[in-house]
Give the backbone structure.
Amino acid sequence: MTPLPRALLALAPDQPIPLARHGVLIPSGRIGETDIRGAIVMVETDSDIATLQMALAASASMIALRGYRTGADLQRLATLLCVAEAECGCPEGSTSILAMTDGLLPAPAARESLAEKSKRLAGLVWDQRALALTLGARRTRTEAGEWTPSFTSARAATLLTAAAARVPAYDSVFDLDDDALAQACRQSRAEGFFGQLTATETQTAVVEALYAG
C-alpha cells in the first residue's frame, strides 16, 4: 500500500488537476476530465455504486467520504465498495477510505463512532470549511489568530475520534500566510495530527516539508 501523504490537496471544482496526483482530492464530478490515476476521489455520503465504479476504473488510489458523521456512513460506503471492486475486477478490500468531517461527531468511544466500523478506514480528515458552512460562520479565528471555540471543539473531536479508531488525523489549514502556516503545522504536529488538508500546491509543499521529519 502506498504510504499516506502528509498533505491532502482538496481541489475546488475549477482548480487545475496537478500532474503529481498523490494526495490530491478530486471531486467525483471531475473523474472523466483527465487522467486521475493515483488521485483520491471525493464522494458524498449518498453516492451510488456507479460513482465508485467510475473512480476505481479511473485508477483512483483511495476514496474520500465527505460529510462523514457516524460509523453508519463509513459502513455504507465500505459495503458499496465491495460491490464496486467486484464489478471492476479489483481485489476485495483493496480500496481504502478517508473519512472527511466537519467535526460534529459522536463521542469517540460511542457505538455510533468510527472504531471497528471498517478495516478500510485509513484516516480521519477535519475540514474547517465544511464546519463554516454547517454553522454559517463568517469567521473561524479570533483577533489573536486562535480558533474560535466551536472550531476548537470540532478540531479536538476529530483528533480524539481518530485516536480512538487508531487511524491518523488530518488537521485543516486554508487561510494562513507562509509564516502562520509554518507555525500552525508545527503546533498541529506536536498535538498529534498526522498531516493537513490544504487548498493550494504551495501549502502542500510547506506541509509535506514540515511533517516529513
